Amino acid sequence: MSVTFEQIILDAKRIANRLKDREALGDALLLESESVNKQIESMRQFQDDIDILNRLARERSNNQLITIIHQENPQIREIQQENRLLKAALEDHQHALEHIMSKYREHTQAKILNTKVNFVEAYSRHHQAADIERRDQLIRQQTAKIQEMAAVMQRASQLDEEKLNHEQEVLSRLVTENKGLRELLEISRKYGSGGQKMLVDEKSTQTESCLLEGLIEAAIKERATATATPSSSSSCSKATEKPTTDTTPADVKVPGTEQHSSAVSEGPSTMATTSSSTNTGTIKAMTAVVNSKAEPSTPSTTTATATATAATTAITVAGTVPATTTSSS
C-alpha cells in the first residue's frame, strides 16, 4: 500500500500538534511541581518555627507566660479600641465621600442637561431660518423684476407719449402750412399780373387740398389705431398716463375746397394708398413754400412762388396718384 505525500504531511502535522500538547502538559506539570515544592518548604518552615516555640516554652515556666499574657492584654485592648475608632472614622469618611460624590453627580448632570444641544429644535430652527432666507431672496428677486418691468413700462409710455406729441406737432404744422399756402394762393390770385397766366388750374388746387386732408385723416387714423391696440408691456403704464386730446379736427375744412365736391371726394380714397415717402416729399415742398414767405413779396415774386408751389404739388401728386393732376398749358 503506497503512502502519498499528503498523508505524510498530515501525519507530520498531527505529530507536531501532539508534541505541542505534550510540551504544554509538561510545562503545567513543572509549574505544579514547583508549587508543591513551595508548599513543602513552607510546611517545613512552619514546623521549624513550632519546634522553636516549643523549646522556648519548655524552658520558661507557666507563671512567666501568664505575666507576659497579662502585660500584653492591655495593649491588645488599646489596639482593639483604636481599631474600632478607626473603623468608625473610616465609615464616617466613606459616608461623607458618598454624599459629596452624589452632590457632584447631581451638579454635573444638571450642567450637562443645561448645556446639552437639542438637535430637533436646532434642526427646526435651522430650517426655519433657511426658509425665511429663501423667502426673503425670492421677495428681493420679485421686487427687482417688478422694478425692471415698471422701468420698461415707464420707458414705453414715455416713448409712446413722445410719438403722439410728435404726430400732433406734425399735424399742427401741416395745418399751418396749408393755411399759409392758401393765403399765398389768394394773394397770387388778387395781386398777380394781368397778362400772366397761372401754370396751375383750379383742379390742381383742389387736388392739393385733397392731399392735405388725406394726410391729416391718415395720420389721425394711424394714431387712433396705435392708441386702441397698445402693447402688453405698456398696458399698465398707460392707465396712469394723462389722456392726450387731438387739437386738430378730423374734418378739416380749408377755404376754397367747398366749391369742388368731386375733387374732395377723391381725396380720402386716393390717400389710402399713399406711402410714407410721398408724405415726406409733400411736407418738404410745403416747408419750402412756407419758408419763402419770409422774403419780401412783390406781385411778380408772389405769382412765381404760387406757380412753383402748384407745380411742385402737381409733380408730387403725379408720382403717387396718377389721373388726379392735370397740367395747364
TrEMBL record:
Keywords: Coiled coil. Residues 225-238, 269-282 have a biased composition (Low complexity). It holds the Pfam family SIKE. The keyword Coiled coil applies. Residues 258-268 have a biased composition (Polar residues). Residues 223-305 are annotated as: Disordered. InterPro entries: SIKE. Belongs to the SIKE family. This is Uncharacterized protein. It comes from Anopheles marajoara.
